[in-house]
Protein backbone atom coordinates (compact mmCIF):
# COMPACT_ATOMS: atom_id res chain seq x y z
CA UNK A 1 0.00 0.00 0.00
CA UNK A 2 1.71 3.23 -1.06
CA UNK A 3 1.83 6.12 1.33
CA UNK A 4 2.60 9.73 0.49
CA UNK A 5 5.31 11.21 2.63
CA UNK A 6 7.07 14.53 2.54
CA UNK A 7 10.35 16.15 3.39
CA UNK A 8 10.04 19.37 5.42
CA UNK A 9 12.94 21.83 5.47
CA UNK A 10 13.22 24.54 8.14
CA UNK A 11 9.46 24.48 8.86
CA UNK A 12 8.73 25.63 5.31
CA UNK A 13 6.36 23.98 2.86
CA UNK A 14 7.10 20.42 1.84
CA UNK A 15 9.51 20.44 -1.09
CA UNK A 16 9.55 16.80 -2.09
CA UNK A 17 6.96 14.03 -2.15
CA UNK A 18 8.01 10.39 -1.91
CA UNK A 19 6.12 7.11 -1.98
CA UNK A 20 6.85 4.90 1.00
CA UNK A 21 5.80 1.27 1.41
CA UNK A 22 5.33 -0.11 4.90
CA UNK A 23 3.52 -3.20 6.14
CA UNK A 24 2.71 -5.20 9.24
CA UNK A 25 3.25 -8.94 9.32
CA UNK A 26 2.57 -11.17 12.33
CA UNK A 27 2.94 -14.86 13.08
CA UNK A 28 4.55 -16.27 9.97
CA UNK A 29 4.32 -20.05 10.10
CA UNK A 30 7.05 -22.02 8.35
CA UNK A 31 5.34 -25.18 7.09
CA UNK A 32 8.66 -27.00 6.57
CA UNK A 33 10.14 -26.49 10.03
CA UNK A 34 6.87 -26.04 11.92
CA UNK A 35 8.24 -22.86 13.51
CA UNK A 36 6.23 -19.68 14.02
CA UNK A 37 7.97 -16.31 13.67
CA UNK A 38 6.46 -13.16 15.12
CA UNK A 39 7.65 -10.23 12.98
CA UNK A 40 6.23 -6.75 13.43
CA UNK A 41 6.66 -3.64 11.29
CA UNK A 42 4.86 -0.35 11.87
CA UNK A 43 2.37 0.92 9.33
CA UNK A 44 2.19 4.44 7.99
CA UNK A 45 -0.73 6.69 7.13
CA UNK A 46 -2.40 5.01 4.17
CA UNK A 47 -4.28 7.77 2.39
CA UNK A 48 -3.61 10.98 0.55
CA UNK A 49 -4.67 14.40 1.81
CA UNK A 50 -7.12 16.39 -0.27
CA UNK A 51 -6.14 19.94 -1.18
CA UNK A 52 -7.39 22.30 1.56
CA UNK A 53 -10.10 24.86 0.80
CA UNK A 54 -10.64 28.42 2.05
CA UNK A 55 -13.87 30.10 3.12
CA UNK A 56 -14.77 33.41 4.77
CA UNK A 57 -11.79 35.25 3.29
CA UNK A 58 -11.33 38.89 4.32
CA UNK A 59 -8.55 41.41 3.84
CA UNK A 60 -6.60 39.96 6.80
CA UNK A 61 -8.06 36.50 7.56
CA UNK A 62 -8.57 33.16 5.82
CA UNK A 63 -10.46 30.16 7.19
CA UNK A 64 -8.72 26.99 5.97
CA UNK A 65 -10.63 23.66 5.95
CA UNK A 66 -9.43 20.14 5.14
CA UNK A 67 -11.00 16.69 4.99
CA UNK A 68 -9.97 13.73 7.06
CA UNK A 69 -10.64 11.30 4.18
CA UNK A 70 -12.35 8.97 6.65
CA UNK A 71 -9.06 7.92 8.23
CA UNK A 72 -8.73 10.34 11.15
CA UNK A 73 -8.38 7.48 13.60
CA UNK A 74 -4.79 6.92 12.43
CA UNK A 75 -3.83 10.61 12.55
CA UNK A 76 -2.19 12.00 15.70
CA UNK A 77 -2.34 15.59 14.49
CA UNK A 78 -2.57 17.87 11.49
CA UNK A 79 0.04 20.49 10.73
CA UNK A 80 -0.89 23.58 8.72
CA UNK A 81 1.98 25.31 6.90
CA UNK A 82 1.37 28.84 5.62
CA UNK A 83 3.96 30.87 3.73
CA UNK A 84 4.22 34.12 1.84
CA UNK A 85 7.07 34.29 -0.67
CA UNK A 86 8.55 31.13 0.92
CA UNK A 87 8.59 32.77 4.37
CA UNK A 88 6.40 31.18 7.07
CA UNK A 89 3.81 33.52 8.56
CA UNK A 90 3.87 34.17 12.31
CA UNK A 91 2.97 30.98 14.19
CA UNK A 92 3.41 28.65 11.20
CA UNK A 93 3.47 25.70 11.30
CA UNK A 94 0.23 25.34 13.28
CA UNK A 95 -0.23 21.97 15.03
CA UNK A 96 -3.89 20.88 15.26
CA UNK A 97 -5.45 17.90 17.06
CA UNK A 98 -6.57 14.81 15.15
CA UNK A 99 -10.24 15.85 15.20
CA UNK A 100 -9.74 19.48 14.14
CA UNK A 101 -10.36 20.14 10.46
CA UNK A 102 -10.06 23.93 10.17
CA UNK A 103 -7.72 26.77 11.11
CA UNK A 104 -8.46 30.50 11.06
CA UNK A 105 -5.44 32.45 9.86
CA UNK A 106 -5.36 36.00 11.21
CA UNK A 107 -3.13 39.06 10.94
CA UNK A 108 -2.58 38.55 7.20
CA UNK A 109 -1.71 41.29 4.73
CA UNK A 110 -4.42 42.53 2.31
CA UNK A 111 -4.15 41.51 -1.36
CA UNK A 112 -1.40 39.01 -0.61
CA UNK A 113 -1.05 35.45 -1.91
CA UNK A 114 -0.35 32.70 0.61
CA UNK A 115 0.69 29.09 0.04
CA UNK A 116 -1.15 26.66 2.33
CA UNK A 117 -0.36 22.98 2.90
CA UNK A 118 -1.92 20.57 5.40
CA UNK A 119 -0.02 17.55 6.65
CA UNK A 120 -1.53 14.55 8.48
CA UNK A 121 0.94 12.93 10.84
CA UNK A 122 1.21 9.94 13.13
CA UNK A 123 4.14 8.25 14.85
CA UNK A 124 4.86 6.16 11.75
CA UNK A 125 4.65 8.70 8.95
CA UNK A 126 2.94 11.60 7.30
CA UNK A 127 1.02 12.55 4.19
CA UNK A 128 0.75 16.01 2.69
CA UNK A 129 -1.87 17.87 0.69
CA UNK A 130 -1.19 19.68 -2.54
CA UNK A 131 -0.30 23.36 -2.19
CA UNK A 132 -3.26 25.75 -2.18
CA UNK A 133 -2.47 29.30 -3.33
CA UNK A 134 -5.01 31.80 -2.00
CA UNK A 135 -5.06 35.59 -1.72
CA UNK A 136 -6.58 37.82 0.91
CA UNK A 137 -9.09 40.44 -0.25
CA UNK A 138 -8.49 44.15 -0.80
CA UNK A 139 -8.63 46.30 2.30
CA UNK A 140 -11.98 48.06 2.65
CA UNK A 141 -11.83 51.85 2.62
Key structural traits:
141 residues, mainly beta, Immunoglobulin-like, 6-stranded antiparallel beta sheet, 3-stranded antiparallel beta sheet, elongated, disordered N terminus
Describe this structure in words.
With 141 residues, the protein is mainly β. The chain has strands at residues 2-7, 16-21, 28-29, 36-37, 53-55, 62-65, 77-84, 87-88, 94-97, 102-105, 113-122, 125-128, 132-135. The chain has no helices and 13 strands. The strands form four sheets. Strands 7, 8, 9, 11, 12 and 13 form a six-stranded antiparallel sheet that branches. The chain has a three-stranded antiparallel sheet with strand order 5-6-10, with no helix packed on it. A two-stranded antiparallel sheet has the order 1-2. The chain has a single domain (2-135), classed as Immunoglobulin-like (Sandwich). The model is unreliable at 1-13 and 15-26 (pLDDT under 50).
Element order: H for helix, E for strand: EEEEEEEEEEEEE
| β-sheet strand percentage | 35-45%
Number of helices: 0
Basic shape: elongated
Residue stretches low in confidence (pLDDT < 50, at least 5 long) are 1-13, 15-26
CATH topology: Immunoglobulin-like
For the record, the CATH architecture stands as Sandwich
The Cα radius of gyration reads 19 Å
Count of structural domains: 1
Amino acid sequence: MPTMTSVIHDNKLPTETLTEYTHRTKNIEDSLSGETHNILADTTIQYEMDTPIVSNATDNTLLVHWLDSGAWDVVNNYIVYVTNDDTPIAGSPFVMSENTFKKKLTGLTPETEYAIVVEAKNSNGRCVSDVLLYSTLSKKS
